[in-house]
Amino acid sequence: MRAMNASHHGSRAGSWVALDTHRAWLDTEADRLLRFAAGARLPEGGFGWLDAAGSPDPARGTQLWITTRMTHVFGLAALRGVPGAAPLADHGLAALCGPLRDPADGGWYPAVPGPHTGPQGTRKEAYGHAFVLLAAATLVQARRPGAKTLLADATAVFEERFWDDKHGWARESWDRAWTEPEAYLGANANMHTVEAFLAVADATGDPVWRQRALRVADFFVHHIARGQGWRVPEHFTPDGFPLPDYNADAKADPFRPYGTTPGHSFEWARLLLNLEATLPDPPDWLADAAGRLFVAAVGQGWNADGGPGFVYTVDADDKPVVRARMHWVAAEAIAAAAALHQRTGDLVYEHWYRLWWDYTAQHVVDPAGGWHHELGPDNRPSATVWAGQPDVYHAYQATLLPQLPLAPGPAAALRARLDGPA
Q1: Which is the catalytic residue, given 91, 341, 372, 394?
Q2: Which among 264, 327, 341, 363 is annotated as catalytic?
Q3: Dihedral in degrees, nearest 10, Cα atoms 167, 198, 257, 259
């Protein structure tokens, strides 16, 4: 790939993102997604798992990861000045301070039952808690009542229970009473921890969160992925050794699939550029690694089985394992291409950005709903891994991030835009 431009603000000459017409399309799509997402509001609190028709699935209860991500999205929409978004953000905040919160042992449940569900799990997971951090930080930027208290609570729990300062990563999960940590370390939870830490740094002004984000990225990307051909292993022992055969008997797991996941390489690439742009003296490897992860992900995932789209997972030889196409991978590929183009000015990223939006508009966008969460190898809607259209987090950010700077994060950037010049 071409050398990185020294500027954090590469030229957008010739870019779709520079066109008012393209930005108008992005905004229209964002608003359409919000209208669909509003249907997830549950009267008992939080947001439900939407089916393909846009109705909450009564069998799923209230999921922490969905409620936090929807709350984050509605917080961003409130910062964009979208009428009706703030009350929905407040509805999510109330659930995080109420039924999803464990009043006895602290932290947040992964899910709570609804009127038509049985008992839900009580394990405390870094993945869900990272999204509590993200949602709370966004709500602080949106100046929602109670947001600062929620963020203070969430940061205290994360620091005490999940942050492993010795190793510089987030522990995966605990039992409800915080007595038994899981004998597993996951790259996915840690990747979203990086995203959350950057948002917390923006909301609090405390630079320690950026340094912690750098330590997480240093291990999973600079230390591990660099030595494995820019593949990011997903699964590790608790002390940080890769587990290449993890879930070999459950290859299509929605959160812990066997093999490697090209979509996560795109996410890591964007987050590395966000991290670089926010650090006062960033290490040179961040930008270099972002570009190399992107190239590897394109080679591993795009048209990997001979048809258009990104395969979900590949094995150690980069052969497709699960060929289903996930909406979130297309969304993260778009966001990564936009970030790299902004960082470098290189039109090769503009090429990919246009190509993947064309693919997404043709196959992934559901005119009658949100985005199809899963397509089969033939690019027709399927549900082998994901049923319905449970959330809009990835899709919404794909419409928003290309229009914003690499730093600060999206909520802080929208806050600054709303406030105007000092």
Answers
A1: 394
A2: 264
A3: -70
Verify whether residue 235 is a known catalytic residue.
Answer: no
Inter-residue contact 153 to 226 (CB < 8 Å) = no
Bond prior to 103 in cis (omega within 30° of 0):
no
Query: What is the per-residue pLDDT across 165-191, written as a single tens digit (0 to 9) for each?
Result: 999 999 999 999 999 999 999 999 999
Q: Of the candidates 103, 102, 122, 125, which has an alpha carbon nearest to the alpha carbon of residue 111?
A: 122
Model pTM above 0.90:
yes
Domains (range + CATH), the chain: 16-419 (1.50.10.10)
351 catalytic per annotation: no
- Taking Cα atoms as reference points, which of 160, 185, 163 lies closest to residue 172? 185
Q: Give the span between the Cα atoms of 396 and 414, in whole angstroms.
A: 14
User: Within 13 A of 295's CA, how many CA atoms are on the CB side?
Assistant: 13
